[in-house]
Amino acid sequence: MFSDLLIKRLKKAKTVAVLTGAGISAESGVPTFRGEQGLWKKFRPEQLANFNAFIENPKLVWEWYNFRKNLIRQVKPNPGHYALVKIENLFTDFCLITQNVDNLHRLAGSRRIYELHGNIMRNRCVDCNKQFDEILFDDENLPRCDCGGLIRPDVVWYGESLPDDVLTKSFAAADKSDVFFSIGTSAVVQPAASLPVEAKRAGAYVVEINFEPTVITNYVDESIIGKSGKILPELMKRILND
Ligand code: OAD
Fold first, then answer.
1. Residues within a 6 A CB radius of ligand 1
2. Same structural domain, 215 and 97
3. Using CA atoms, how far apart are residues 31 and 48, in angstroms rounded to an integer?
4. Which helix (H) or strand (E) holds 94?
5. What atom of ligand 1 comes closest to residue 117's alpha carbon?
6. Backbone φ/ψ region at 99: left (φ over 0), alpha (ψ -120 to 50), beta
7. pLDDT digits over 89-107, tens only?
8. Looking at residue 45, what is its pLDDT?
C-alpha cells in the first residue's frame, strides 16, 4: 500500500505538513461538499456560505449553520483523525492544515492546527469582530453582540479572504516540508489547493490519500487510494514498525 520510498522519506523527515479536507471526516458521518452525496448537490453555496446572503437573510444562513452544528455535535473523530495525532508526535516539526470547520481535529487531540476556513463552533460580530464561543439562541432572536452588530459563524465564506496569518503559516509549512500529505480533499478550492503544488515545487515528497483520484493525482509523487480512516492508522503502524 505504501512505497518503500515514502517510508524512507518519512524516516528521514524533520518537517511534515498535512492538508485535510472534508473526506477525513466522512467516516465520522460529516457529509462532504462535492460528489453524489455532497452538500453542494442539495444546497447552493452562494445562498448559504456568503456574506451578502447573510445580510439579506441571516435567519436562513443561521438555520443552515445550526443544522450543520447539530450534526457535528453528534459525531466523533474517527481513526483517521486519531492517527494524525499519533503521527504528529513522531515528528519534531509537524503541522496540520485543514479546510474543515468541524473541530474534529481539535477534539481528537491534534495540537498544531491551521484552520484555513475557520471553525463552525466559533462565532464573531460582523461589526466589531469580537469573538464568541458557543452561543445559544432561538430562530426568532438572532444573536447580537453588545455593540449591536449581528453575530455570524467564524467561518470563511465564498468571496472572503482567508485569515492572513493562518494562510501565511500554511504556505510557509508547505514550503519547508520534507513530506506533504493531501488527505480527503478534492483539491479544487483555492488557495488551499495550491498548497500541495507549492510543497512539491519546494522539494517535498507529496502524497495524496483519497477515496478516489482527484485533479492532483497525476501530479503528486504518490497516490494512495482508499479511506483515510483505514490508511492513516496503517501508515502510523508501518512508520513505527519499520
Ligand atoms: P470535497 O467535498 O470537495 O472533497 C472531499 C474529498 O474527500 C473527495 O475528493 C472525496 O473523494 C474524498 N473522500 C471522501 N471520503 C473519503 C474517505 N473516507 N477517505 C479519504 N477521502 C475521502 O471537500 P473539500 O476538498 O474539503 O469551503 O472542499 C474544500 C472546500 O469546499 C471546503 O472547505 C468548503 C467547500 O466549499 C468553504 O466552506 C469555504
1. 21-23, 26-27, 32-35, 38, 45, 49, 99, 117, 156, 184-186, 189, 210-212, 214, 227-229
2. yes
3. 16
4. strand 93-98
5. 39
6. alpha
7. 999 999 999 999 999 999 9
8. 77
Is the torsion defined by CA of 188, 176, 114, 17 positive or negative? Answer: positive
The three three-digit cell numbers of residue 60, written as one number: 436562513
Range of the domain at 138: 38-74+126-155
pLDDT at 148: 94
Q: How many CB atoms lie within 10 A of CB 116?
A: 22
Take residue 167 and report the three cell numbers written for it: 494562510
Same domain? For 176 and 145 the reply is: no
The alpha carbon of 88 and the centre of ligand 1 are apart by a number of angstroms equal to 22
Listed as ranges, residues in the chain with pLDDT below 50 are none
- What atom of ligand 1 comes closest to residue 186's alpha carbon? 9
H or E element that contains 198: helix 194-201
Q: Is 105 assigned a catalytic role? A: no
160: amino acid identity, one letter: E
Share of the chain above pLDDT 90, in %: 84
What's the pTM?
Answer: 0.96
Domain CATH number, residue 202: 3.40.50.1220
DSSP, residue by residue, 100-159: --S-HHHHHT--SEEETTEEEEEEEETTT--EESS----TTS--B-TTSPBEEEEEPPBT
Q: How far, in Å, CA of 148 to CA of 16, rounded? A: 44
How remote is the CA of residue 144 from the centroid of ligand 1, in Å?
A: 32
